[in-house]
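re: ur question from earlier - yeah i can do the single chain one, its not a big deal. heres the input i used so u can compare w yours
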Amino acid sequence: MFNFIFSKIKRRHFCFSASANCFFSSDEGGSEMFQGSINPAIAHYYNENSAIGVGSSYGYVRSPYVRNRKGDILGNHQFQVYPFWRRNYDLTEKTGMFYRLETGVGYSISHEYSNGSSPKFHTWTFDAGFRSGLYHFLTERLSFELMWGFFNYSHVISNYSYGTYHSDYVDLNLNLGSVTVGLQYYFLKE
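and the output i got, formated as tokens:
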């Protein structure tokens, strides 16, 4: 069994992955927040356990905020493209852990839902960071993945109607909203 799995790992060539996350929260006052994303990616394994690839993400966040003493809802559509480098570490014949270094550019547009659906502001984000996770092969070509956390540096450019603002921050995101689950399909060398 071990030789079969090991030979399979050596034959990795390309993989396509798709992951998603979904997060709900509410407080005692009845305020509710929703966050979700879909994240396809493609990668090329250039040796047994290392790959380079490119991914994209579409996310949506809907959250309450207070303005002028009345509750409004803010909806935020987020788009991102990110190249990455990934390194796998096998723990058993079918299971392992990985870390991924990535850098990317993102764009988001926010809408205020209490006063119609007109754009409120646009944001560009440039970031670089580190993610980690676990994988488990279900078949020779299909694996299940669980990814959590994101340690990153970001430069954000926000364009409001009254001006443009730049900000920089370092963040360690370990909340439930950072957890993604997904599948990877491997195209193997013959």
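The radius of gyration is 19 Å. not sure if urs matches, ping me
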